[in-house]
């Protein structure tokens, strides 16, 4: 095989791989993400009482990054305990469990005597 033939084969193969693994258009991906989010919210509304949903919304105002992990935990719990809704007290328990898992950093400051010995003379 000549160098040109090898190069053509490589280009064809690269195009095949790109077409096979290329992401869908951004509009299609956004639509799918929106549909998934709608389904997720629908499932959560069926799994949680009104009070628990309100509490979760308030948490989302303060710490939006934690809401997703809490929602995931609720969905997992629903798979195990089918047929009942998560109450506000159960949501509080979930929050406490997540708070225990977080690592807490404490900083201890020490007072150093930075006065110069020359000042005392």
UniProtKB/TrEMBL annotation:
Protein name: Programmed cell death protein
Comp. bias (Basic and acidic residues): 1-10
InterPro entries noted in UniProt: PDCD5-like, PDCD5-like_sf
Lineage: Eukaryota, Metamonada, Anaeramoebidae, Anaeramoeba
Species name: Anaeramoeba flamelloides
Low complexity biased stretches: 24-38
Annotated Gene3D superfamilies: PDCD5-like
Domain of life according to the entry: Eukaryota
Stated family: Belongs to the PDCD5 family.
Region (Disordered): 1-38
């Amino acid at each position: 095989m000549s160098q040109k033939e090898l190069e053509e084969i490589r280009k064809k193969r690269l195009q095949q791989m790109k077409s096979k693994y290329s992401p869908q258009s951004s509009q299609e991906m956004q639509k799918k993400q929106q549909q998934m989010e709608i389904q997720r919210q629908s499932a959560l509304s069926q799994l949680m009482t009104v009070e628990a949903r309100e509490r979760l919304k308030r948490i989302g105002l303060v710490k939006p990054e934690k809401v997703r992990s809490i929602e995931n935990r609720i969905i997992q719990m629903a798979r195990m305990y089918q047929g009942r809704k998560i109450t506000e007290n159960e949501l509080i328990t979930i929050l406490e469990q997540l708070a225990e898992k977080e690592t807490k950093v404490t900083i201890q400051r020490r007072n150093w005597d930075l006065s110069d010995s020359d000042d005392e003379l």
